[in-house]
């Protein structure tokens, strides 16, 4: 298994290894054990994840100003962010890198194809830590496994993570649930998963046919029902919390997503703790059950 310090730090213009960067562990005044969706949806995606030794963002799809303000609302300074973990190179997942990575110098953790996509998107290259899809690596006290998902870009990934005795799952932007996705999300304690749309609302929308084909296709986005089927498959007594993410603002609603999924699971006598991540406001933080801890602040 790779440790972050053992991963190569690249300047993608030169290809040469750069000096070690931000690898010194920080000592935090507060203990952060949880995650909080800062924004979720087609306008931008960003999740804060905090542990005893790390503060990271999963994706950076909103502006730096918005990220700074949303982090402040949960008691976190953007200057404390150790790294940004990227799922794929679409704009609603990377547009905030313009300042956070290029100007502030926060390291970006991505696979090779995503790193190339980011460099092409900005016509500039931040400092990358390159991981390999399918290979587990360590960052501080997190063990991170990037796994392949079906989406319409090069080498998109979801993440399963180990933190102390917990397993975490983060998986959005996938056209359908593969056997690999199911296996990677089995036995999770906390799960952030896509429930993007209701196909009826997609068909009824005024969006052009090419959009509808993309969203409903095998490399598009996950429907409410497909999400419910996945949850049925991976449900187990230790699944403490599920957050539904990346809801379409036009082709889904919070109420419809929850109703569809709860009704499906109810037919199988499954009752999960569900909530929905929001686009414009900070969602309710999730606190890991690890014993005594100081919770995230929330306004």
TrEMBL record:
Highest taxon of the lineage: Bacteria
Any Pfam family hit: Lactamase_B_2
Gene3D superfamilies membership: Ribonuclease Z/Hydroxyacylglutathione hydrolase-like
InterPro entries in the cross-refs: Metallo-B-lactamas, RibonucZ/Hydroxyglut_hydro, WalJ/YycJ-like
Ranges for domain Metallo-beta-lactamase: 43-221
Full protein name: Metallo-beta-lactamase superfamily protein
Organism (species): Estrella lausannensis
């Amino acid at each position: 298994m790779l440790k972050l310090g053992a991963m190569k730090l690249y300047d993608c213009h030169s290809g040469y290894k750069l000096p070690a960067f931000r690898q010194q562990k920080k000592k935090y005044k507060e203990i952060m054990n949880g995650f909080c969706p800062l924004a979720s949806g087609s306008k931008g995606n960003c999740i804060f994840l905090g542990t005893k030794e790390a503060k990271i963002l999963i994706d950076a799809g909103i502006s730096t100003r918005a990220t700074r303000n949303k982090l402040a609302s949960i008691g976190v300074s953007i200057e404390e962010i150790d790294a940004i973990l990227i799922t794929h190179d679409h704009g609603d997942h990377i547009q905030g890198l313009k300042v956070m990575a290029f100007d502030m110098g926060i390291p970006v953790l991505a696979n090779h194809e995503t790193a190339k996509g980011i460099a092409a998107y900005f016509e500039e290259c931040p400092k990358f830590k390159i991981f390999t899809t399918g290979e587990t690596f360590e960052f501080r006290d997190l063990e991170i496994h990037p796994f392949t998902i079906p989406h319409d870009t090069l080498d998109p990934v979801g993440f399963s993570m180990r933190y102390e005795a917990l397993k975490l799952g983060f998986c959005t932007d996938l056209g359908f649930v593969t056997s690999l996705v199911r296996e990677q999300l089995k036995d999770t304690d906390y799960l952030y998963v896509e429930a993007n749309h209701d196909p009826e609302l997609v068909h009824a929308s005024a969006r052009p046919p090419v959009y509808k084909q993309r969203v409903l296709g095998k490399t598009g986005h996950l429907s409410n029902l497909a999400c419910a089927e996945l949850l049925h498959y991976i449900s187990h007594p230790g699944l403490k919390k599920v957050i539904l993410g990346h809801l379409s603002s036009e082709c889904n609603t919070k109420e419809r997503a929850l109703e569809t999924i709860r009704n499906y699971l109810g037919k199988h006598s499954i009752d999960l703790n569900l909530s929905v991540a929001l686009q414009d406001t900070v969602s309710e933080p999730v606190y890991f059950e690890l014993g005594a801890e100081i919770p995230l602040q929330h306004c």
